Amino acid sequence: MPQLLRCFVPLALACSCAPASRTVDLAQTRTALQDADRAFNQATAQRRTEGWMQFMAPDGAIIRPAGTLTGPAVREAITKMFADTSFTLTWEPVQADVGASGDLGYTIGRWEAHYRNDKGVPASNTGRYLTIWKQQADRSWKVVQDIGVTDPAPAAQ
Protein backbone atom coordinates (compact mmCIF):
# COMPACT_ATOMS: atom_id res chain seq x y z
CA MET A 1 0.00 0.00 0.00
CA PRO A 2 2.77 2.57 0.81
CA GLN A 3 4.21 1.82 -2.65
CA LEU A 4 0.83 2.65 -4.22
CA LEU A 5 0.56 5.89 -2.21
CA ARG A 6 4.00 6.99 -3.36
CA CYS A 7 2.78 6.72 -6.96
CA PHE A 8 -0.73 8.03 -6.40
CA VAL A 9 0.02 11.16 -4.34
CA PRO A 10 2.37 12.79 -6.89
CA LEU A 11 -0.09 11.95 -9.67
CA ALA A 12 -3.00 13.45 -7.72
CA LEU A 13 -0.99 16.59 -6.98
CA ALA A 14 0.04 16.96 -10.60
CA CYS A 15 -3.57 16.66 -11.76
CA SER A 16 -4.85 19.13 -9.17
CA CYS A 17 -2.24 21.70 -10.21
CA ALA A 18 -2.99 21.47 -13.91
CA PRO A 19 -4.88 24.48 -15.26
CA ALA A 20 -8.62 23.90 -15.41
CA SER A 21 -9.93 23.74 -18.91
CA ARG A 22 -12.24 26.61 -19.74
CA THR A 23 -15.84 25.63 -20.31
CA VAL A 24 -17.08 27.33 -23.45
CA ASP A 25 -20.73 28.23 -24.01
CA LEU A 26 -20.74 27.64 -27.76
CA ALA A 27 -24.16 29.21 -28.36
CA GLN A 28 -23.14 32.37 -26.51
CA THR A 29 -19.80 32.46 -28.35
CA ARG A 30 -21.54 32.11 -31.74
CA THR A 31 -23.74 35.07 -30.83
CA ALA A 32 -20.69 37.08 -29.74
CA LEU A 33 -19.03 36.29 -33.05
CA GLN A 34 -22.04 37.50 -35.06
CA ASP A 35 -22.11 40.63 -32.88
CA ALA A 36 -18.42 41.22 -33.66
CA ASP A 37 -19.16 40.84 -37.38
CA ARG A 38 -22.01 43.37 -37.16
CA ALA A 39 -19.75 45.77 -35.24
CA PHE A 40 -17.12 45.30 -37.99
CA ASN A 41 -19.74 46.30 -40.58
CA GLN A 42 -20.83 49.32 -38.56
CA ALA A 43 -17.26 50.52 -37.93
CA THR A 44 -16.46 50.17 -41.64
CA ALA A 45 -19.61 52.10 -42.63
CA GLN A 46 -18.71 54.91 -40.23
CA ARG A 47 -14.93 55.08 -40.51
CA ARG A 48 -14.22 53.29 -43.79
CA THR A 49 -10.56 52.14 -43.91
CA GLU A 50 -9.89 52.77 -40.22
CA GLY A 51 -13.09 50.96 -39.24
CA TRP A 52 -12.08 47.98 -41.37
CA MET A 53 -8.54 47.87 -40.02
CA GLN A 54 -9.78 48.06 -36.41
CA PHE A 55 -11.12 44.53 -36.84
CA MET A 56 -8.17 43.00 -38.73
CA ALA A 57 -5.65 40.94 -36.81
CA PRO A 58 -2.06 42.14 -37.31
CA ASP A 59 -1.39 39.02 -39.39
CA GLY A 60 -4.85 39.03 -41.00
CA ALA A 61 -5.33 38.39 -44.70
CA ILE A 62 -7.91 39.05 -47.37
CA ILE A 63 -8.33 36.62 -50.22
CA ARG A 64 -9.51 38.09 -53.50
CA PRO A 65 -9.51 36.86 -57.12
CA ALA A 66 -6.19 38.63 -57.72
CA GLY A 67 -4.56 36.81 -54.79
CA THR A 68 -4.06 36.88 -51.04
CA LEU A 69 -3.08 40.12 -49.35
CA THR A 70 -1.54 40.31 -45.87
CA GLY A 71 -0.07 42.94 -43.58
CA PRO A 72 0.39 46.41 -45.12
CA ALA A 73 -1.06 45.17 -48.43
CA VAL A 74 -4.45 44.78 -46.71
CA ARG A 75 -4.49 48.42 -45.63
CA GLU A 76 -3.33 49.52 -49.07
CA ALA A 77 -6.13 47.60 -50.85
CA ILE A 78 -8.82 48.74 -48.42
CA THR A 79 -7.64 52.36 -48.62
CA LYS A 80 -7.80 52.20 -52.42
CA MET A 81 -11.29 50.68 -52.28
CA PHE A 82 -12.60 53.44 -50.01
CA ALA A 83 -10.81 56.22 -51.92
CA ASP A 84 -13.85 56.17 -54.21
CA THR A 85 -16.21 58.33 -52.15
CA SER A 86 -19.24 56.85 -53.92
CA PHE A 87 -18.28 53.38 -52.74
CA THR A 88 -20.19 51.81 -49.84
CA LEU A 89 -19.97 48.27 -48.54
CA THR A 90 -22.35 46.63 -46.11
CA TRP A 91 -22.81 43.06 -44.96
CA GLU A 92 -24.82 40.91 -42.59
CA PRO A 93 -23.80 37.58 -41.08
CA VAL A 94 -26.32 34.76 -41.52
CA GLN A 95 -24.36 32.01 -39.79
CA ALA A 96 -21.55 31.66 -37.29
CA ASP A 97 -19.77 28.76 -35.69
CA VAL A 98 -16.83 28.29 -33.35
CA GLY A 99 -14.43 25.51 -32.51
CA ALA A 100 -14.74 23.60 -29.26
CA SER A 101 -12.03 25.75 -27.64
CA GLY A 102 -14.11 28.86 -28.35
CA ASP A 103 -11.22 30.95 -29.66
CA LEU A 104 -11.49 30.36 -33.42
CA GLY A 105 -14.63 30.69 -35.50
CA TYR A 106 -16.18 31.89 -38.71
CA THR A 107 -19.06 33.93 -40.00
CA ILE A 108 -20.84 33.53 -43.34
CA GLY A 109 -23.07 36.17 -44.82
CA ARG A 110 -24.14 38.37 -47.68
CA TRP A 111 -22.53 41.64 -48.75
CA GLU A 112 -23.64 44.50 -50.96
CA ALA A 113 -21.52 47.23 -52.56
CA HIS A 114 -22.72 50.46 -54.18
CA TYR A 115 -20.60 52.79 -56.31
CA ARG A 116 -20.56 54.80 -59.53
CA ASN A 117 -19.20 53.02 -62.59
CA ASP A 118 -16.73 54.48 -65.11
CA LYS A 119 -19.55 56.47 -66.72
CA GLY A 120 -20.71 57.89 -63.39
CA VAL A 121 -23.85 55.75 -63.35
CA PRO A 122 -24.87 54.22 -59.99
CA ALA A 123 -24.05 50.50 -59.90
CA SER A 124 -23.97 47.72 -57.35
CA ASN A 125 -22.68 44.23 -56.70
CA THR A 126 -23.73 41.58 -54.24
CA GLY A 127 -22.02 38.49 -53.01
CA ARG A 128 -21.23 36.14 -50.19
CA TYR A 129 -18.39 36.04 -47.72
CA LEU A 130 -16.61 33.80 -45.26
CA THR A 131 -14.67 35.49 -42.49
CA ILE A 132 -12.46 33.54 -40.10
CA TRP A 133 -12.05 35.10 -36.67
CA LYS A 134 -9.60 34.50 -33.83
CA GLN A 135 -10.16 35.60 -30.26
CA GLN A 136 -7.31 37.78 -29.04
CA ALA A 137 -5.66 37.84 -25.60
CA ASP A 138 -7.95 40.76 -24.63
CA ARG A 139 -10.98 38.53 -25.56
CA SER A 140 -11.83 40.68 -28.62
CA TRP A 141 -12.42 39.00 -31.98
CA LYS A 142 -10.18 39.89 -34.94
CA VAL A 143 -10.34 38.84 -38.57
CA VAL A 144 -7.56 36.46 -39.61
CA GLN A 145 -8.96 35.58 -43.07
CA ASP A 146 -11.62 37.33 -45.15
CA ILE A 147 -12.88 35.77 -48.36
CA GLY A 148 -15.55 37.34 -50.55
CA VAL A 149 -17.09 36.22 -53.83
CA THR A 150 -19.30 38.24 -56.16
CA ASP A 151 -22.65 36.86 -57.26
CA PRO A 152 -22.84 36.12 -60.98
CA ALA A 153 -24.34 38.85 -63.14
CA PRO A 154 -28.02 38.30 -63.91
CA ALA A 155 -28.63 36.58 -67.22
CA ALA A 156 -29.61 38.90 -70.08
CA GLN A 157 -33.35 38.98 -70.62
Describe this structure in words.
With 157 residues, this protein is α+β, with helices and mostly antiparallel strands. The chain has one domain (24-150): Nuclear Transport Factor 2, Chain: A (Roll). It contains four helices and six strands. It has helices spanning 2-17, 26-47, 49-54, 72-83; strands spanning 56-64, 67-70, 88-98, 104-116, 122-135, 141-150. Strands 2-1-6-5-4-3 form a six-stranded mixed beta sheet. The radius of gyration is 22 Å and the shape is globular.
Features:
157 residues; alpha+beta; Nuclear Transport Factor 2, Chain: A; 4 helices; 36% helix; 39% strand
Give the beta-strand count. Answer: 6
**N→C terminal distance:** 87 Å
Strand coverage percent: 35-45%
- The Cα radius of gyration reads 22 Å
What structural category do the secondary elements indicate? alpha+beta
Total domains, how many? 1
Strand numbers in spatial order across the main sheet: 2-1-6-5-4-3
Bin the helical content.
Answer: 25-40%
Looking at the structure, what is the overall shape? globular
Extract low-pLDDT stretches.
1-20
Reading off the top of the CATH hierarchy, the class is best stated as: Alpha Beta
How does the major sheet shape up?
6 strands, mixed
CATH topology: Nuclear Transport Factor 2, Chain: A
The H/E string reads HHHEEHEEEE
**What's the architecture in CATH terms?**
Roll
Mean pLDDT: 87
**Total helical segments:** 4
